[in-house]
Amino acid sequence: MLLRPLERSSNEGPELKRVYLVPNRCLGCEECIEACKREHDWVACNYIEWVNRIYPVQMVCNHCAEAPCELICPAGAIHRTETGAVVVEDDKCIGCTLCNIVCPFGIPKFSEEDRHAIKCDQCAERVAAGKEPACVEACPMKALTFAEVEDYEAERRERTARRILEVGTCLRRFVAKKES
Amino acid sequence: MIRIEIDGNAVEVAEGSTVLEAARKLGIDIPTLCHHAGLTPYGACRLCVVEVEQRGRKRIESSCTRPVEPDMVVRTDTDDLREYRRTTAELLVAQCPDSKPIRELAERLGVQNVRFEGRGMECILCGLCTRACQQKIGTPAISFIHRGVDRKVATPFEIQSDVCIGCGACARVCPTGCIAIEDMGNKRVLRVFNTELELQACSECGAYFAPQRMIDRLKTETEVTEGLLTRCPACRRQAIGAVLRQAMR
Amino acid sequence: MVVSLLKLTYNELVEQLNDDDRIVVWTCNDCVRYCGLGGRDPLDALADRLEADGYNVIHRELCGISCNRGLVRNRQTHPATKPIYQDATVIIPLVCREGLETLAFVFKKQRIIDTVETLGLGVYSEETGMRLNVPLEETGLEPSIDGYDLAELAEQRGLHTGPFVAGQKAKAK
Fold first, then answer.
1. Which has the closest alpha carbon to B93: B49, B129, B45, B145?
2. In angstroms, rounded to a whole number, what is the distance separating the alpha carbons of residues A108 and A92?
3. Using beta carbons and an 8 Å cutoff, which residues of B are at the interface with A?
């Protein structure tokens, strides 16, 4: 009964769109956190982590395929929606904080005030209305994208190709100068 | 699906759901204290009473334990019910006069003065904590002990529990707020249950983040990666952030 | 990055407030954070102090880039914050002059307290903190590669380095 062993698969359903980050573009302005707060009644469920104290990395729930939080939740309050997002049902949560402890990314929070766990629901209402999640829309640097894996990878390949091209032309110019 | 009528509004709910759930689906607010959507209904507080009319007979029943049946007509806000709820709330205030949520609810239900003598308890014996602990967490750490007026929630023999994992679910579901969890240094103290638990320190930042026993239990009963459980969530975020930064330049 | 210093001390700021003002404390989270004036911790520290002194702080706003008019206007029009800004009478901004002008442009009805003097452009590094490298013409300073130290500048020009109210120690970023 208790802490269900992690064996139940919840990996079915449609391919999930996720929030992806391009760390180089992130300023660490926390606009995503503010947008999340406005969307979710002044409690944010995303984070900005400062790596080596100078590189900001935005962190948000990954909606893992076999989400540990979903598997561990003894009250069955965390479940996967039709769109593939892993969400907390507020009124079912008994506040054991196990989701917080087992999350490999340390994302779910616990609100002592509302007495339930808080995690990203991928802005269910907004996405249902055909909009992007609030954090993605708010990012002034366009560092966040809301896409399926393939689309994001394609975009990333293109970005890298462009960079290689840039570096290549720089090098060529440099070499040409030296020879002359 | 079963179709019932609540306060003149028809609603269709799945078989086996309760009247309370059906009412909530309609957006009708029925006051409750001992109900929690994640736990089995218990019917202890008697505040959620409704009038159920079936085959011409009327009965007052608690909506959280009453399964829906076809051709039910439910009324949630009659004079009788208001009176009934008011008296119940008055008794609850008498039971625990110091609990703020109870007094607020009683005020909302129209209790002006309490005619009954106070017992000065803090617990209304709704059993939410014991249900959360036994059914969901699966640890029989707390249960009801004694009978009648002596009935209360406690650990076996009212001494330090050796199975409590210190998750704190009991405190978070408690409607009166009478279970306090205090983290003092490396100890988590549940004073009402005479229980003290050691907290585990994060291997990186040294912050105490979870009870030792909870971690031990997760290690033995689940397949959570072991290295994961030595770090606090904040340090996990830091570590993953560093990896992301490296990998996704 | 834009280098700014505070014009006012906390006491001078409080003199400009009335007891019945409904205050929004606003901070930018970009350049001023590196100058040590703004960001989440100074925002909370200032708002806490104002609340402790009996002022009516109705909202704490952190705006990622306050010189971006779109982001500022977003606050004004977003359903979650719109009523707050309709209600507010005073905005205390912890932003550079550019941000101040943007705020003044967007929030026409509120009184916006001028708290900050912007001195020019600078570079932030972890060892030296923020230093002023390209001062504005009106400051009369020469551009310098090594840069000017902010504490010295503040002393020379009668300004103050941030934050307004020292709260819990701001994380070094």
1. B45
2. 15
3. 36-39, 132, 135-139, 167-169, 171-173, 209-210, 214-215, 217-218, 221-225, 228-229, 231-238, 240-242, 244-245, 248-249
pTM (predicted TM-score) = 0.85
Angle in degrees, 0-180, between the axes of helices B100-108 and B79-95, rounded to the nearest 10: 160
Give ipTM to 2 decimals: 0.86
All residues of chain C having their beta carbon less than 8 Å from the beta carbon of residue A138 are 64, 71, 74
- Nearest CB partner across the interface for C64, out of A30, A38, A53: A30
Torsion sign (Cα): B77, B79, B85, B86: positive
pLDDT in tens, A18-39: 888 888 888 888 999 999 999 9
Find chain A residues with C-beta within 8 A of C30's C-beta: 27, 29
Judge whether A41 and A167 are in contact, CB under 8 Å: no
CB of C127 within 8 Å of a chain A CB? The answer is no
Chain B residue with minimal CA distance to A20?
B248
Cα–Cα distances (Å) from B132 to A76, A135, B176, B216, in that order, read 12, 35, 15, 20
* Tokens matching residue A23: 């760390």
A vs B, Cβ pairs < 8 A, gives: 132
| Residue A157 host element (H or E) | helix A149-179
Chains near B, with 3+ CB pairs < 8 A? Answer: A
| Best to test chain B binding among A4, A94, A100, A105 (most B CBs inside 10 Å) | A94
Strand, coil or helix: C54: coil
Decide if B50 contacts B19 (C-beta within 8 A).
yes
Residues forming beta bridges with residue C3, ordered by sequence position? C120
**What integer best gives the mean pLDDT of chain B?**
88
- Over residues A107-148, the pLDDT tens digits come to 999 888 888 999 999 998 898 898 999 999 999 989 999 988
What is the rounded end-to-end Cα distance, in angstroms, of chain B?
Answer: 53
Q: Which two tokens stand for residue A29?
A: 């302005």
Helix (H, G, I), strand (E, B) or coil at C41: helix
End-to-end CA distance of chain C: 14
In sequence order, the 6+-apart residues with CB closer than 8 A to the CB of C58 are C22, C23, C24, C84, C87, C88
Eight-state DSSP code of residue C78: S
**Up-side HSE of residue C64: CA atoms within 13 Å toward CB?**
22
CA distance A35 to C95: 19
Helix (H, G, I), strand (E, B) or coil at B104: helix
Query: In angstroms, how far apart are the furthest CA atoms of chain B?
Result: 72
CA dihedral A124, A128, A131, A137 (to 10 degrees): 0
Which secondary-structure segment (H or E) carries B88? helix B79-95
Q: How far apart are CA A101 and CA B212, in angstroms?
A: 12
